[in-house]
Here is the input.
Amino acid sequence: MRIWRWAVFGLACVLALAGSWGSALGQRRMDRVMVGTVGHPSDAGMYIAMEKGYFAEEGIEISLNNTFRTGGQTIPLLATGQLHVGGGALDPAFINAIHQGINLKVVAGKGIIRRGNGFNVLLVRRELYERGLRSIAGLRGRKLAVTNLEGAVTFEVQEMLKTAGLSLRDVDLVVLPNPEMPVALQNGAVDAAFVIEPVATVATYRLKSAVILMTADRVVHDFPIGVIFYGPAILAHPDLAVRWMTAYIRGLRYYDVAMRDPSVREEVIRIFLKYLPFKDVEVYRNMIWPGLRPDGTFNVGYVRPLQEFMLERRAIRAVVPTEQLVDFSYLQKALDRIRERGSR
Here is the structure.
């Protein structure tokens, strides 16, 4: 009887251990990826991938901080490994980090100026518009708000001014954070402003303090105003880098569907309402939506002119070859994985 009891006890222990092992083996280990960005609609690919479970399907848990004031603020955290992935612009902070020998790469687009998606907008104060200021030429000598003096947005402003034979020297540039520009236009602190959506729609649709003078797609095409950065912490793990990109590309493809399907577009608006600071559904319905290519790429031909602009503004010390800055290899491997799976 004693032997029988020990046999039963032993069998119970084996079954209990087997059950615990099976449970452990059935749970996929999740890799935590820390992402930092400024919190714009151009981050849609990431937000969609989080909400639709695409990152989870790749064994990735996202730790998101989307409260940075500028993309440049993510660069030091990427450099020190406090962030794996960053979203921002091809601005001097990134180029100067490369000059310092920091292993950073632009790996995909995050916000592309495409025809019909000129979500970077030059606004003029409504009062001035109604008094006849309806062309770029009328900005000569006027106060024009920008978010910085030497980055990609100011490059866009320069290209707009060129259409009227003007340069940046012909206007009085005033640096303001993007969210403050609608009120600055309303109270007359500035005459014009280069504003990024959805803030542009807040100014034109909600406050009615400004009128669109020109959209960025009039002067730049397939322009990478927003990009995805990989830092050393994820570049050291190529498989994780490809898995993250796979989920992100799927998010971009879903966004592309939203551009054609009103019901999917409403779903993406609900995602915006969850992740972005603006909680006005009508603003998202009326804004100019960012361009996001479903393959994640952008026109790399702009990388050198952007750097030359920064060099002229004395914001960087030298131009870096494009191939040292942009690496689409993770993107290509992610696209290959998606094709092999037959996924949308």
Notes: The chain has two domains: 31-113+222-341, 120-218. The chain is about 45% helix and 15% strand.
